Amino acid sequence: MVTVAPGADVSDAARIGEGTKIWHLAQVREDAVLGENCIVGRGAYVGTGVKIGDNVKIQNYALVYEPAVLDDGVFIGPAVVLTNDTYPRSVNPDGSLKSAHDWEPVGVTIREGASIGARAVCIAPATIGRWATVAAGAVVTKDVPDFALVAGVPARRIAWVGKSGEPLVREGDHWVCQRTREKYIEEDETLREVDA
Q: Which of 107-137 are b and which e, b meaning 16 or more Cβ less than 10 Å from the residue's Cβ?
């Protein structure tokens, strides 16, 4: 069963998965696809054709502009903005108002399990890697590797995080999650899981 709160604006052309909840004042545009068990918070915006996997949380007043892609298990914090225009202008060089045909939208892709903190801005085109974390208030201007914790303006990697979201601790040749004991190896500024 899908739950749509009174006052939400959900296009009939959007596809909404079972168990998904869309709260008051949220807008979900045409051809957006939301997976199962998602939450779209109050006042959030999901643009035309945006693709969202299962178990995704989009918190209050977040703006997810097309053609964003959010994989399963992604968390979007309050007031996050995922942009879609590399060179934004209201008008063309001749002064005429731009229309949808006057620019090419580019998107932000967020991979499985990644989290974007409150009021962060991700400037397209960018890919946020699997299980990465973008700190609150950060401005992402380039791709973020899997398992990276990035912060600042512009965002830079300040640590590695595991699937629990907690910072990893160096133990010998490995990075280790203190909660799950999962191990990772760092190679060439990237992190990969060690097979159990």
A: bbbbbbbbbbbbbbbbbbbbbbbbbbbbbeb
The predicted model scores a pTM of 0.95
Q: Taking the CA atoms of 43, 87, 113 and 29 in sequence, report the sign of the dihedral they define.
A: positive
pLDDT at res. 101: 87
In sequence order, which ranges of 47-180 are alpha helices (DSSP H)? none
- The dihedral sign for the CA sequence 109, 65, 35, 114: positive
| DSSP-assigned letter for residue 124 | S
Q: Contact, 65 vs 84, CB < 8 A? A: yes
Count of CB atoms situated within 10 Å of the CB of 154: 11
Q: What is the pLDDT of residue 59?
A: 98
Q: Which of 55, 61, 54, 67 is nearest to 80 (CA)?
A: 61
Nearest CA to 140 out of 164, 114, 165 is that of 114
**Ranges of the chain with pLDDT below 70:** 196
**CB under 8 Å to 182, separation ≥6 — which residues?**
162, 163, 176, 193, 194
Dist. CA 140–CA 128, nearest whole Å:
9
Q: What is the largest CA-CA distance in the chain?
A: 61
